[in-house]
Design brief:
With 470 residues, the chain is α/β, with parallel strands linked by helices. It has 19 helices and 16 strands. Strands 3, 4, 5, 8, 15 and 16 form a six-stranded mixed beta sheet that branches. The radius of gyration is 33 Å and the shape is globular.
């Protein structure tokens, strides 16, 4: 090939290359540069034949398409929300479907388990390196895993001041000044009673008990005049402590149970003895509870209450969806279920009766392999739309203040919860080993109910065990 150049006209150029090649070159070049080239009646300088062919083949559709970025690699994240599987699945499946539609490159794998298996399940997953990316965990485990450096600090990814505007319980989500959780499941305890059973017993269904003594009298009348038990008392190893905390807060006006800093066991006191004696008498002296409380959790008592097998029951908003499946809640005067404040130690303190208020939280475990995807999923489930759906389906007090304006939470059956929130305390002391504290308290109550230990001996023995916890 000679290096000599020659001038050719536009007509000679078209004849030389041919119509098909011209279409290829012009179409490809104009497409590549956005149509910047404009045809003009002028001459151009080109190399000889071989050089021209080389130039044409280098600007081709194939060359252009290779500049397109490859699609991102799909990723999978797992989400864990313990609880009654049927209710969790009802919310979770819809949420996952919508999330994957919005983020087609992120696959979501739900992990289900009931509260009865929760503690064993989550610890097994974390210990084996299979922790879920996003999880709703019990408040005690938030502190435990935060102390183990197993959770992602969320104040690095969220505006804390903005979160405080939406979440009244956000303070419960900090451990040593760092935010590790987002409120996911909020609930406090109130008093449920079965109006139809009251009527059978000759009691006024519009006048629930207001004091401890009235509650005992009502329970006795119910057991004498109906085939129902008076009061449901959980005595299992997980939820037995609930009724202790409810009555402790009511009697002491939300005095702490225990101070981990000073190792002060406040229920090792006359007030603590009074609460434990009252619960002991319900089970063993007056015998107005279901037989063998140790065999029943709070969850086991719910269907018994629904079916009128027990007349009075302490529970949170979690029971409402189940009750609404059976009874018409549209009119409080026609609904056979009554909901009110927890009976207090006396009439004077009834308006100030109190209860514990839980705050399970969304967290992200550090074991996640795709933090960005996990954050997107967390932001999705905590959004106002999906948090509201979660709270309605599962039965919760609103986690976000915006939810109180929704129609569901303006209904009559949520009013007692709103009132009792004013006098609610935390479910446990803020400590690393809150789970063990809960277990020991349940164990103490079981020993007392089963008459294996005297109240005084149980208080002294378990107070010493608890002081050793972190």
């Amino acid at each position: 090939m000679t290096s000599e150049s020659e001038k050719v006209s536009r007509r000679d150029w078209l004849k030389f290359v041919g119509g098909t090649v011209v279409g290829l070159v012009v179409g490809g070049v104009l497409g590549y540069f956005g149509g910047a080239a404009k045809p003009a009646e002028k001459t151009v300088t080109v190399e000889k034949t071989k050089t021209i062919v080389s130039t044409v083949t280098s600007v081709s559709p194939t060359t252009i398409t290779t500049t397109t970025a490859p699609p991102p690699t799909p990723t999978t994240v797992r989400i864990f929300r313990p609880g009654t599987v049927e209710k969790v699945r009802k919310w979770m499946e819809e949420a996952v479907k919508e999330f994957e539609k919005k983020y087609p490159n992120i696959n979501v794998e739900p992990v289900y388990c009931g509260w009865g298996e929760y503690s064993t399940k989550i610890r097994s997953l974390v210990a084996s390196g299979q922790a879920p990316d996003v999880a709703m965990i019990w408040i005690g485990d938030v502190y435990y895993y935060a102390d183990q450096d197993a959770l992602i600090p969320l104040d690095q990814h969220f505006d804390v001041e903005e979160l405080k505007k939406s979440y009244p319980t956000l303070n419960a989500c900090f451990w040593k000044g760092t935010l590790y959780g987002i409120p996911a499941s909020v609930g406090n305890f109130v008093f449920f009673y079965h109006k139809k059973v009251f009527e059978k017993a000759g009691l006024d269904p519009e006048k629930p008990p207001r004091t401890w003594d009235e509650m005992v009298d009502y329970a006795r009348q119910i057991q004498e005049n109906t085939d129902s038990y008076g009061i449901g008392i959980p005595g299992d190893a997980i939820t037995a402590k609930d009724v202790f905390t409810i009555h402790w807060y009511t009697l002491t006006k939300v005095k702490p149970e225990y101070d981990p800093e000073t190792k002060t066991v406040y229920w090792d006191s006359p007030e603590g003895r009074k609460v434990l004696k009252f619960l002991y008498d319900l089970v063993n002296t007056w015998k107005v509870t279901q037989p063998d409380p140790l065999s029943y959790s709070r969850f086991d008592l719910r269907p018994l209450f629904r079916d009128g097998k027990i007349a009075m029951h302490f529970d949170g908003p979690w029971i409402i969806p189940m009750l609404k499946e059976t009874f018409d809640f549209s009119d409080p005067e026609k609904c056979p279920i009554g909901i009110t404040r927890i009976p207090s130690v006396d009439e004077k303190s009834y308006p100030y009766s109190a209860s514990q208020s839980g705050c399970d939280q969304w967290v992200i475990f550090k074991q996640t392999k795709d933090l960005d995807a996990a954050l997107e999923l967390l932001k999705f489930v905590m959004s106002p739309e999906w948090q509201y759906k979660h709270d309605v389906i599962y039965g919760q007090i609103p986690a976000r203040v915006e939810e109180f304006e929704e129609e569901e939470f303006k209904q009559w059956y949520y009013e007692p919860f709103k009132e009792m929130l004013k006098n609610s305390g935390p479910p446990q002391p803020v400590m690393i080993e809150m789970t063990e504290y809960q277990r020991l308290m349940c164990e103490m109550l079981q020993k007392i109910y089963a008459r294996e230990m005297e109240i005084e001996d149980a208080i002294k023995a378990y107070a010493e065990k608890i002081k050793k916890l972190r």
